[in-house]
What does this fold into?
Amino acid sequence: MSVEVDVLLQEAKESIEAAQNYRHELQQRLHGLSQARKQVRGSSGQARETLRRHFTELQAAATRLLNERLAALLAEVDAVEADSVRPLDDCQSLIEHGIGQADELLREGEAALRCGLGEKEDKLGSFTKKAMHIQLDSLPEVPALVDVPNVSAQLDDSLLGVFRDRVSRHGAVSSHPPVQIEELQERPGGIMVRWCKVDEDFAAADYRLQYRRSASGGQQYEDAYIGRDSEFLVLHLDPHVDYLFRVCARGEGRTEWSPWSVPQTGDTTLAPHEWRPGTEGYILSSRRNIALRSDSAHSRCPALFSRAPTYFCGQTLTFKISAAGQLDRRDSLGVCIDTHKGAESLQRDQAVCISTNGAVFVNGKEMTNQLPAVAVGSAVTFDMEVVHPLPVSNNNLSDGFKLRVTIGSGNREVVFDWLVDQEVDCLFFGCSFVHSGWKVLVF
It folds into this structure.
């Protein structure tokens, strides 16, 4: 086969491979377009259903309120009418009774005048006595029209204008939520969720983060965080399980929440940090991420270490203090390469730590720099990264490793290089307290 044929064959293979890659990329973009169309169609359908349901409920509520108000006003009219007509009915009965008496008296008088002379005196005397008894000069008082109620209804025509104005501004349709999830970062037993505003004109007062299992079907979202921060660490998640996260915001001076962001899927492959059970002097929570220094061991209490070396370089390890005891410079919070059974502190070789008084120790030696003392609410953080192996010695083996360590507490931090004897990518964490009462959460 000639050289030219070989060149053409190679070019053909490269063209076929390029065409395959091109087709694959186009198919990926086609799938992306399908997902985008699905999101537009689906969210539009949900928005229509939400609007119809809301306005149907609003119409029913408005009709109910108007009917209730109408019934109340009609009841007031009925009450005014009943109270006003009652004395008029009493007066009418009195007048009709008087008319009846006058008619009867007239008949008796006319009969007395028509009778014979023998009976006339007796009947006229009886008639006169009866007329005097009836008191023909006494008439009941009839109220004037100005003194009786003239019932009317007063209606404020401005209500319709106010209602029309409020209805015209009620509700809104948005094509994009004002906030979106920016990053999902796995952490041991959890995921750090960060979000950001995409609508710069939206003044957010609070954010609301929710999550649920991705394969949970109809399971409802759970609130994970409500506040002003734009990131939150969601803990107590199962490793290798997909979770859906979404976020929304509430504007300044508003009570309603904005539309939800597009849900994002995330998972963690890192096992959660856990304290080692069975250590004398410490009580652990059910999830083993909280340790309480009890008073069961009053002296020579051993240090408490993690169940496994679950801290990896490049991560942030956090100790959160939720209860505090008496300070002691022998206390320690930190990380170590290995665990020594019976060790009473991390202020030793192959470990870095901070004491509760703020002193920093590297391989058992106290540094000049010092951090604020640890107290209730304090969060002590450890960040580490591999700088590079130390120079190779004559036996062609590395003499050790150098880790750059950043320890933060309060609003201060110290940064230093930690020399270790061997290459490490994961470490144990631990704590020790001389006095009881300390309670620490690790994540």
